[in-house]
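Our consortium's second objective concerns turning raw sequence data into structural hypotheses that experimental partners can test. To show how far this objective has progressed, the report includes one record in full. It was chosen at random from the queue rather than selected for favorable results. The single chain below, 278 residues long, was entered without modification.
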Amino acid sequence: MRIKFWGTRGSTPVPGKDTIIYGGNTTCLEIDLKGGKKVVIDAGTGIRSLGNYFEERREDVNIHLFITHIHWDHILGFPFFFPIYRSSTRIRVDGYDLGIKGLRYSFDTKMGDGFFPIRFEELRSDIQFDNKLTQGSLEIDDTLIDSIPLHHPQGGLGFRFREENKTLVFLTDNELDKGGSFFSDYVRFCQSADILIHDSQFTPEEIPRHRGWGHSDYQSALDLAVEAQVKKLVLFHHAPERRDSDVVKIGILCQDLAKKRDSNLEIEPAKENSVLVL
C-alpha cells in the first residue's frame, strides 16, 4: 500500500504562512493498493489538488471513494474535483451510508438553495453508491477492508485495510474515552496495525472544553496506539488554529510520552503531500 496525504486539517481549510509544512487542506487521502486499484478517503478540500494531479497525468480516473461522514470539511472539495466533469471518470462511493447524499448536497439540497452553479445530475462522470462497507467487509483485489463506527456526532465510519501481512487503520473524527465502552472496541480494531492514522485535534488541556464534539486529544490517540500495540501512529486532523510550530511541538511531546512508557511506537504528525509505504 502507498498512502499519500492530500489534506490533513480538521474543521475548516486554513491556507497561509503558518500551515505550509503540515498543510491547510481538509481531509483527503489517496491509497494505492498492491493490486493496482486506487482508494480515496474523503473529499475535503485536499481532493482538489488530487484532481489536478490526475489532470496533469491525463489519465482516466477509476477510483473507490470512501466517505467517513458528511460534515462539511470532509465533502467540501468534491465540486472542485475536476475528474467528475469527464465522462471517462468512474467513481464507486462507499463507507458512511449517507455518503452519496452528502456529496449531492455539496451541490444542492433540492430546496432551491443551490450551493454550486453546476447540478450533481449534470456531472458527466459515472458515480455509483455501492454501500458495501456498512454491510460487512469489502475485498478489492487482494486487500480486505473492514469498517467500524466512529464516536462522532451524527456518526461515521473508520476503515481498516489488510493487505498480505500489512495493516493500515484510519480513524478520524473519533472521540476516544479510555474509560468508555467504545475504547476496547477500537483497541481490537487497531490491534497490531502497522500504521494507525488517528484524529488528534485537541490537546489534553483543551479536551475538557470540547467533550461531545467528536474529536480526540493526542494523549488519547497515543493511549490507543500503545494498548493496541500499533507500530506507527500518525497524528491527524490538525486543529485549524494549530500552526506548523505547534504541530511540531505536539509530535515531540507524544514521542516523549511514548518513551516514558517504554514504548517503541513511532509517532509523526500527518503532513500534506507526504507519502507512507506499507
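The partners drew two points from this record. The chain has one domain: 2-277. The chain has a mean pLDDT of 96. Both points have been shared with the crystallography group to help prioritize constructs.
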